[in-house]
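Weekly structure sync, notes
Attendees: PL (lead), two postdocs, one rotation student
Agenda item 3: pending single-chain targets
PL asked that the sequence for the first pending target be pasted directly into the notes so everyone works from the same version. It is reproduced below exactly as submitted, 140 residues in total.
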Amino acid sequence: MEKIPEFIANHLFLFSLFLGLSALLLWNIFGNVATGILPLSPPEMTRIMNHEQGVVLDIRKNEDFKAGHIINSVNIPENEIAKKKGAWTKYANQPVILYCSNGTVSPKVARTMRQEGMEKLYYLKGGLTSWRQANLPVTS
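Predicted structure, written out during the meeting:
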């Protein structure tokens, strides 16, 4: 234990790198929770859809949406979110759940929507892939 300060002094670059990577890892894990955007599993998403009248936004491309999507979801592609603000701001009083193909794009879009004033924002962790893996219905 007494050798830790000596190690840090001798390997300042490695220790700084360790601290930086640890901070990035923690931000990656807890960053969306800190901003009020929560990840949902497929069963949690189903509960919010059914019991809280949650609105589901599919942010994938139109072609992907037509190939298969979650029942009753609304398609607003990621690149059109800013242009079609009126299409999603009407859901400001309802929980809004975003999903993409694999869950990597929807948190970013949710942060953008949060900055525009949306309050109850969620995203499907793992995207449509996790929905399909849970054997939940998809329609085309």
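Discussion points:
- The first strand starts at residue 37 and ends at 40.
- The mean pLDDT is 87.
Action: rotation student to compare against the earlier draft before next sync.
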